[in-house]
Design a protein that fits this description.
D-Maltodextrin-Binding Protein, domain 2; 6-stranded mixed sheet; 2 domains; alpha/beta; single chain; 38% helix
Length: 439
């Protein structure tokens, strides 16, 4: 069988530099004990296809590779690995175990115990700095780094990179938010003012979780504010770039206050928990629930614009990505196997197959152009919104609680009668607290 062409150039210097990261042995990862295990037949002697620099006749020995992925793609991943090893028998001497450990748990487990963690694992991009700091990610260099940056959209490639070093293979570009709406109620999804007017007239609800530090930046980034952090090579926060204490910040906060005052407003972001809803800011994970809720009136769009003091702003926000990381290894052959597998699982072919199997939106630019992906209404709306959003970088844990506190104050009506000067003071305090997290 013709073997899949993979870029597998690995510099001698990189292999020599691979070291086993130290981790606590007192705790073991909390993984599901059910496993999907693939044991491939012994490798055959074949000539490598053109472009494959790991010859099929190269003896990579035998061993075991453990992969952690989300439960809903466990069976899919096992089937893909079996296909990969069949088409590339030079890697078939390795037994590959695919275990159901979600992105959040995987990152937490690796940070707690690197040595006991999986060799390859999926994680959300906001965990990158913590994983790098814990020594749980192998730097991706050479042709592999070129593969990441050339094959994926800029947001996904940027999310896999820290301090100019690539640390992971992007899997998806589908973790963001946009608007689901009932087109029998909402006549102009491009304008928040128009949406609210339609919802109020119909006695319906508009849902957005403004006390979430993830959804809340839709207003602040929309007016041109910045809130990002810089990290060093170890993942430590070294600088906060925050401009919330500004006229733009006041405009964003006033927009949140205006929204909360509407009788149509409901604080929430889950279609399943929305009652009497005509519009909701949510993500692709709730697309089926939204279809069930709105039925034949189901529709999607990028986030709307909003107006403050006569000036119009386009809602922005965060874009998120699922990534696949490789744990540092001491065995050079196992390094080759792990990198080849990770590249295959993040390839155009596999991303398309994953979309067809479970609906994950591809980060691969060629896969994004497939007719099936372009026909997906939710992914199309998200794609439009991501053009107005920023990739979610690394944020201190305390930031998320701080954003919730600001939103709670808006919802409680604390700023309903506040002057612009009072709002500026509140944002100055918010900004100073954000900056303190990087000192």
């Amino acid at each position: 069988m013709k073997k899949r062409v993979l870029a597998l150039v690995m510099s001698t210097a990189m292999i020599a530099s691979v070291m086993t990261a130290c981790g606590s042995k007192s705790e073991t990862p909390a993984a599901d004990t059910s496993k999907n295990e693939q044991t491939a037949p012994a490798a055959e002697n074949n000539t490598a296809t053109e472009g494959d620099t790991t010859a099929a006749t190269e003896d990579l020995g035998t061993g075991e590779v453990t992969i952690w992925v989300a439960e809903n793609v466990t069976d899919f991943t096992s089937a893909q690995i079996a296909k990969f090893q069949e088409e590339n028998p030079q890697y078939a001497g390795y037994t590959v175990k695919v275990e159901p450990v979600g992105e959040g748990d995987a990152a937490g487990n690796l940070i707690t115990d690197v040595e006991g963690g999986a060799d390859i694992y999926g994680f959300a991009q906001d965990q990158l700095a913590r994983l790098v700091s814990a020594g749980a990610l192998m730097p991706i260099t050479g042709d592999y780094a070129s593969f990441v940056t050339s094959q994926n959209d800029a947001g996904a490639a940027g999310a896999a990179t820290m301090a100019n070093t690539v640390y992971a293979f992007p899997l998806t570009s589908d973790n963001g938010y946009f608007l689901y709406y009932d087109k029998s109620v909402v006549t102009d999804p491009s304008s928040l003012d128009a949406i609210i007017a339609d919802c109020e007239a119909a006695g319906k609800g508009y849902y957005m979780e403004i006390n979430s530090a993830w959804y809340q930046p839709a207003f602040f980034f929309g007016t041109g504010c910045e809130l990002t952090y810089e990290t060093d090579d170890s993942g430590n926060f070294t600088k906060a770039n925050v401009t919330y204490a500004s006229d733009n910040g006041v405009a964003a906060l006033k927009a949140m206050i205006n929204l909360h005052k509407s009788k149509a407003f409901n604080n929430g972001s889950s279609v399943s928990n929305a009652a009497n809803c005509a519009a909701i800011v949510d993500g692709t994970w709730d697309s089926q629930a939204a279809k069930d809720l709105f039925g034949e009136n189901y529709a999607c769009a990028k986030l709307p614009s909003f107006t403050v003091d006569g000036k119009e702003y386009q809602m922005s926000g965060f874009g998120g990505f699922k990534l696949l990381g490789v744990k540092p290894q001491t065995d050079a052959n196992k390094v080759k196997v792990c990198l080849a597998i990770a590249q295959f699982l993040s390839s155009e072919e596999t991303q398309l197959a994953r979309y067809e199997a479970v609906g994950w939106g591809p980060s691969n630019v060629a896969a994004q152009q497939s007719e099936a992906v372009k026909a997906d209404e939710a992914l199309s709306a998200l794609g439009e919104q991501l053009a107005n959003s920023i990739p979610q970088g690394q944020y201190p844990n305390d930031y998320w609680a701080l954003g919730t506190s600001l939103g709670d104050s808006v919802i409680a009506g604390d700023y309903d009668n506040a002057s612009d000067e009072d709002l500026m003071k509140a944002l100055e305090e918010f900004q100073a607290t954000c900056e303190s997290y990087a000192k």
